[in-house]
Automatic annotation (TrEMBL):
Required cofactor(s): pyridoxal 5'-phosphate
A single BP term in Gene Ontology: L-arginine biosynthetic process
Native organism: Mortierella alpina (Oleaginous fungus)
Enzyme Commission no: 2.6.1.11
GO molecular function, one term: pyridoxal phosphate binding
UniProt key word Amino-acid biosynthesis: yes
Protein name according to UniProt: acetylornithine transaminase
PANTHER family named in the record: ACETYLORNITHINE AMINOTRANSFERASE, MITOCHONDRIAL, AMINOTRANSFERASE CLASS III
Annotated metabolic or biological route of this protein: Amino-acid biosynthesis; L-arginine biosynthesis; N(2)-acetyl-L-ornithine from L-glutamate: step 4/4
Keyword annotations: Amino-acid biosynthesis, Aminotransferase, Pyridoxal phosphate, Transferase
Gene3D superfamilies named among the record's database cross-references: Aspartate Aminotransferase, domain 1, Type I PLP-dependent aspartate aminotransferase-like (Major domain)
SUPFAM superfamilies reported for this sequence: PLP-dependent transferases
Main location: mitochondrion
Length: 466
């Protein structure tokens, strides 16, 4: 049963990572699972040591829920700060934070209190009525953004997720283009330009802007009018962004794409080209925004010329309670009318109250300074790692990528079985997006485990290649 599950995990890794090296590494991984059963005393968190209850829970889960993720045989029941605990009471250090979501760590007492206090008042009203927390959160976000940079945001639309925020931003861009296009061009100005290795979500519009064949191919045809330009290629911008373009959507720092940091010249060029052709520039800061880079917004790491017309956010905004938002300038807001867009849950008092409390804590000079300081420490620790398999470290604040020369997918299990949770990203990269309040000691603890996992990974790669 467990062996079946391990083999299934290996097969999933194979289908997601087609390189020959990964295939060899995964074969070695499943073969060695048997050895691990014999020598599992060497691993503090061996998959084969999973609590028997774990396997029952997984069986039930698999029987009734649709499998769209390859998951390891671990079930987490609770967390505290940067640690998660499984059914068998094993402690894991979490360098993933729910994929850049739990910025203040797990089961934070203030987040719990904000949830409880608001739930006692009112959870949901719909957008038929005003509510206090949504207005307060909108004011906080707009005023903090205007005070800390040159993005002249004036209005917010709340959604429930990052994908929905992007979907709304794309719709807004199409509407604005229809109303502002030169006479005779109203029906032609609907093009959207996104970039290689970008990730914007999986609904039809957001997926159309996510040029990954693995995600797109099963669902073709997608929304018409989408083009994908090379990321960070200043010279290619003019030919992709034309008078028929209504929007350009870009992550200032690509997360899923492998922690690729946009250059100043690239963002500047996107801004000036959008102005030339009358297109709107959307910054997708769903993964890199809200303090992750040590600034409130990732684009604030660039000059004042690198500002968007719309900014989308989600993940950490309420520390795990689902919420997203589109922040826009007047240029966009004045073209959107009642009935153009809507949502049942978006802007609900519960999510907004939690987000208000989270945002207030993240957006302080002390908190952001600490993200910078610990981000630098994290980076220096990654740079100090010595392995012939490592290619490069890329980072900004607390979003970090460790690129390998081979597919590092097997490293995820090797780290987990030693008590450290990590995730991969595209281009042979391991991604680190821990809680923003992770301590230096926790970073160091994780680095110790990572070193051991990389050593085991080296052994496997060597074994396979021998
Ligand atoms: C940059 C970026 N945009 C959009 C999304 C989609 O957000 P969600 O999963 O909340 O719909 C993600 C999620 O990983 C993301 O990283």
């Amino acid at each position: 049963m467990l062996r079946h599950s391990l083999l299934k995990t290996s097969r999933t890794l194979l289908s997601h990572h087609q390189s020959r090296t990964a295939a060899m590494a995964c074969r070695a991984m499943s073969a060695k699972a048997t050895a691990a059963q014999v020598h599992n005393h060497a691993l503090s968190h061996a998959d084969v040591d999973s609590d028997p209850k774990t396997l029952d829970i997984i069986d039930k889960h698999a029987k009734y829920t649709l499998t769209t993720y390859g998951r390891p045989p671990v079930v987490f029941t609770h967390g505290k700060g940067s640690y998660l605990y499984d059914v068998g009471h094993r402690e894991y250090l979490d360098f993933t934070a729910g994929i850049a979501v739990n910025a203040l760590g797990h089961s934070d007492p203030e987040v719990a209190r904000a949830l409880f206090d608001q739930a006692k008042q009112v959870v949901h009203l719909s957008n038929l009525y005003y509510n206090v927390p949504a207005g307060e959160l909108a004011e906080q976000l707009i005023e903090a953004t205007r005070a800390s940079g040159s993005f002249e945001a004036t209005k917010i639309f709340f959604s429930n997720s990052g994908t929905e925020a992007n979907e709304g931003a794309l719709k807004f861009a199409r509407k604005v283009a229809k109303l502002t296009a030169k006479p005779g061009q109203e029906d032609n100005k609907f093009g959207v330009v996104s970039f290689t290795n970008g990730f914007h979500g999986r609904s039809m519009g957001a997926l159309s802007a996510t040029p990954n064949p693995k995600y797109q191919k099963p669902f073709l045809p997608l929304v018409p009018g989408f083009a994908h330009a090379p990321f960070n290629d200043v010279n290619a911008v003019d030919s992709y962004v034309t008078v028929e373009t209504c929007a350009v959507i870009v992550e200032p720092i690509q997360g899923e794409g492998g922690i690729n940091v946009a250059s100043e010249a690239f963002l500047k060029k996107l801004r000036s080209r959008c102005d030339e052709v009358g297109a709107l520039l959307i910054f997708d800061e769903i993964q890199c925004g809200i303090g992750r880079t040590g600034k409130l917004w990732a684009h604030q790491n660039y000059s004042h010329e690198c500002v968007p017309d719309m900014l989308t956010m989600a993940k950490p905004l309420a520390n795990g309670f689902p919420i997203g938002a589109i922040m826009i300038t007047d240029k966009v807001a004045e073209k959107i009318a009642i009935g153009d867009h809507g949502t049942t849950f978006g802007g609900n008092p519960l999510g907004c109250a939690v987000a208000s409390s989270v945002f207030r804590r993240i957006n302080t000079p002390e908190f952001l300074e600490n993200v910078n300081k610990n981000g630098e420490h994290f980076k220096s620790q990654l740079k100090a790692l010595e392995s012939p398999l490592i290619k490069e470290v890329r980072s900004k604040g607390m979003i970090l990528g460790l690129q390998f020369k081979v597919d590092p997918a097997p490293l995820v299990a090797l780290a987990r079985e030693r008590g450290l949770l990590i995730i991969t990203a595209a281009n042979n990269t391991v991604r680190f997006v821990p809680a923003l309040n992770i301590s230096k000691a926790e970073i160091d603890q994780g680095m110790g485990i990572l070193k051991q996992a990389i050593a085991a990974f080296e052994d496997r790669v060597m074994d396979v290649e021998a």
